[in-house]
Amino acid sequence: MRSPLAVILFLCLATAIPLRAQNAVPQTAPTDDSITVNVLSDRIAVGEIGQLFIKVRNAEATMPERVEMEGLEVVFSGQQSSIKMLAGRQSIETTYFYRIRGNEPGTFTIPEFEIRLGERIAKTRPLVITVTENSDPAAALDATKPHFGKLELTRDTFYVNELVPFTLSAYVRGRNAIHDVVTADLRHESFVFRGFREVRTEGAEVGNSYYSSAVLPSHLFALKAGTHRLGPGEIVVRTLQADNGAFGLSSFFQRTASQQLATNTINVTVKPLPEGAPTSFTGGIGTFQFTATPSLNTLGIGDPVTIDFEVTGVGNLRTMGAPVLAIPQKGIWKTYEPNKKLNDEEDSDGFRAGTVRFSQVLIPEARTETIPEFHLTFFDPAKAEYVTLKQGPFPIVLTAAAAEAPAAITYPAGGGTDSAAKKPDPKFDDILHIRAGAPRWLAAAPSSRPGVGFWIVQALFSIALGTVIGWGAMRWWANHRETRRMPLAEVPFAQAMKRLPRAGAPRREFFHAVSAALASWKREHPIAPPQVLEVIGRVTDRCDAVLYSGETETDSPVSAAEAEEFLSLLRRLPNR
Questions:
Q1: Are residues 305 and 387 in the same domain?
Q2: Is the pLDDT of residue 316 over 50?
Q3: CATH assignment at residue 174
């Protein structure tokens, strides 16, 4: 059994503890200027963009622009600050971002590097990064990432110069999340790539998430046989951002951010063309047909004739040369270098047929009855063999060249020869529009002075102009004096909040009051964080758009929903 003295002591202590806690001064959190170094993921694919971030609290840091090392690119990409309240004390945390990219598979260590924090130097800790090769297009569809790229080829084994369609695709989580495609790039020293001239916007389910996609089709062909690694490709897109702003303030306008997406890699095998190609093979790879049409069927020896060729089909038209004569025609036909015309819009893309045109000039040097036969040889990858197409021969009528008759010579009546030719009379028919007659002079126009009516009109205009200028000057001076007599008082933010009109007030009055309240808050917080100032700037721009754009009725009443939206935003701004 407890004694009465113990009970009394217990009750006294129980009463004193709350009183002491109530009167105690709150302890402030100590200033923490430590740094935290980490990566978003320590495994990235070849060409993929990883992220290193360094958090610094309550200190201004000086960061290096680049971390020099072999095998990895580590480049500074930006910073972001946030404000937190801990135990009644403001704490500022700044995150510095670095972009990491590896172009070869392997394991790399980002070494420690120095960061200046005010007057002292701090060092980061080493980080190990593993760069993997992702050669599976299906594995590129990773639903754990907010955005990624994908490279797809129609086949991974093909011949030199064979046209192969491929696509680069960008995926961003969310519906209509891709604003536009900025650039796309895929490079390799042993391949020729056609540019990306078409963008198809689509969407797809990846895992349990919906992704917006932008598909860029193109085609390529290899210049050298062997095994090659294609990729990673790179796509830069602008994505729509959901930004809540600082202090929970929502954005009024859609914002976009640039995202650099790296695709997977693909290992391809390029086979050389089979040996034993005919002499008429001109480099075309695919399936083609061609026509040949001579420009003349009647000509003389030494007259030129043009043969027009049109080749159509699916395949590589850029490496194709003109059809050639089946049999050499030395001494019979003189040939010239053929002309090739291939328009970009008529080029084959590996799926649709294209058209290329050639023209060949021939000149007969001896009598013949036909324009000889032409051959077009190309390699058909589907059959894995060379195919030769033929056109001609074309019958012609060859006429002898007309000899120029000698000029007739007239002898004098007495016989013999004329010792001297008659001298021709000169004619100057090439000199035109020269007047040979006497000149006709025009008298100068008589000068006259303006009449009385002219001066009356000038005087009236001068009086009107002087009246307008004087009236404007008087109004300006009156306004100036009124402004000097009644200077505008700077209203505190708290008082400006009390003066805010409620729902139903004219829009002009309401938005003037909101703009004035924001100006007061900015005066009272001259060193506010940039993120807060950016949001305040957007709100002010919206107020100005309502007041001065002329697109809305400023005399109409402001709705309750719109008024509450702005009032809730202003209430979230901290008071000093």
A1: yes
A2: yes
A3: 2.60.40
